[in-house]
Write a structure and sequence with these properties.
By secondary structure, the protein is of the alpha/beta class. It has a 7-stranded mixed beta sheet with strand order 1-9-8-7-6-2-3, with helices on both faces. Bound molecules: pyridoxal-5'-phosphate (PLP). The site of pyridoxal-5'-phosphate has 14 residues, from helix 3 and helix 4.
């Protein structure tokens, strides 16, 4: 089965884990710090804070930027549900914003502008599929309305500029992302004081770590905020350091496979649209395509599965989920809904090769033509 996503793990990761176990120091040690520095270097920023997940990181970013009860945060609906859940975690209200277009499924500036109220305090941008929103236009928008800008860069690890569009950026190292620590994430921030606050809130609001105290650099600690336990451990950081070294080559491979998909799909499936036709910086995290309107997507997915190809959908719109529908009724986002109705995610990961892309495209062409015959009959 060709999977939509697959982690690349091997002997180096095993050896890195064994080394941590042999060392005997498994939490909050040198490897977490080394990983934070190395990840920051990859992203071209001075520093980062490693966390237990991107969800934890997004929660910390909102908290560190002072977003709380009474505040509204503009969020896309075409994203993973964590993007909106964390807004509720800090007691603020998510306000759903449409995408630019089904062929450009990034947050719409015009719709965001239409949804700004006196209570709006922040915008949560998502680098959907790894493609970066227009930094200049969003910075100008945030500045004009006095808003904080937070970037959910869960899809965009390894791309220069990702995570740096606004005040804070958050990356995910979950098992299906471009690099993995099994569970894990990292936060970057433009203002070092904000990153300090993220760091403090990650560990219970404590002012020193157990390592600093053991090494004699500090004798006690104070607590300056009711923080969380959102730490990364040494085992994950050790895997992260190995994965990080391979990330640039993997992202290049993803880019090449995406280019090949675009060429092959244009040839074999001309009525399928591929979003992000214009060049744009990207980590090529997933391969979303748009089926022709009216095509029975579950039947296409079944047909592909029978040919050994897994597919998925990114994403069911958040405003259609039971919790959000009941709490925020009447939300209508026509472009997001059209996108979500037609979207199908094809396999994309660095273990694939050109022959795998051909296999997927042939299976997709077959599924579409048999459905067309079915409709004609
Ligand atoms: C994966 C993902 C997250 C959550 O990441 P975790 O590390 O699993 O918490 C958040 N936002 C988006 C867009 C994601 O794809």
């Amino acid at each position: 089965m060709l999977l939509v996503a697959e982690p690349s793990l091997g002997e180096e990761e095993k050896a890195a884990l064994a080394a941590v176990i042999d060392a005997g120091w498994i939490t909050m040690g040198d490897r977490v710090r080394a990983f934070e520095k190395a990840f920051a270097e990859t992203q071209g920023v001075p520093d980062s804070v490693a966390v237990s997940s991107a969800t934890a990181g997004l929660h910390l970013a909102l908290a560190a930027l002072g977003i709380g009860p009474g505040d509204e945060v503009l969020v896309p609906s075409a994203t993973f549900v964590a993007t909106a859940n964390v807004v509720l975690h800090v007691g603020a209200t998510p306000v759903f914003v449409d995408v630019e277009d089904p062929a450009l499924p990034l947050m719409s500036l015009d719709d965001a502008a239409a949804k700004v109220t006196g209570r709006t305090r922040a915008v949560m941008l998502v680098d959907y599929a790894g493609y970066l929103p227009d930094a200049g236009r969003w910075r100008a928008f945030a500045h004009a309305h006095g808003l904080r800008l937070i970037e959910d860069a869960a899809h965009a690890a390894g791309v220069r500029g990702a995570g740096t569009i606004g005040d804070a950026g958050v990356f995910s190292f979950y098992g299906n992302k471009n690099m993995t620590t099994a569970e894990g994430g990292a936060v970057v921030a433009r203002d070092p004081a904000v990153l300090d606050r993220v760091h403090n809130l990650r560990g219970h609001g404590m002012t020193t770590s157990v390592q600093q105290r053991l090494s004699g650099h500090a004798s006690g600690y104070d607590v300056i905020a009711p923080g969380f336990n959102y730490r990364m451990d040494e085992l994950r950081a050790a895997i992260g350091l190995v994965q990080l070294a391979k990330l640039p080559a993997w992202n290049e491979k993803r880019k090449d496979l995406t280019g090949l998909y675009r060429t092959r799909l244009a040839d074999a499936c001309p009525d399928i649209a591929v979003p992000f036709a214009e060049p744009r910086a990207s980590a090529h995290h997933i391969m979303p395509v748009l089926l022709p309107d009216g095509v029975d997507r579950p039947r296409v997915a079944d047909s592909l599965r029978a040919d050994g190809v897994q597919t998925s959908v990114h994403y069911a719109p958040l405003h259609h989920f039971t919790y959000y529908r009941e709490r925020f009724p009447g939300v209508s986002l026509p472009r997001t809904e059209a996108f979500a109705r037609r979207e199908l995610t094809l396999p994309l990961h660095p273990k694939m090769d050109a022959a795998d892309v051909d296999t997927v495209v042939r299976a997709l062409a077959r599924a579409l033509s048999s459905q067309r015959e079915g409709i004609a009959a």
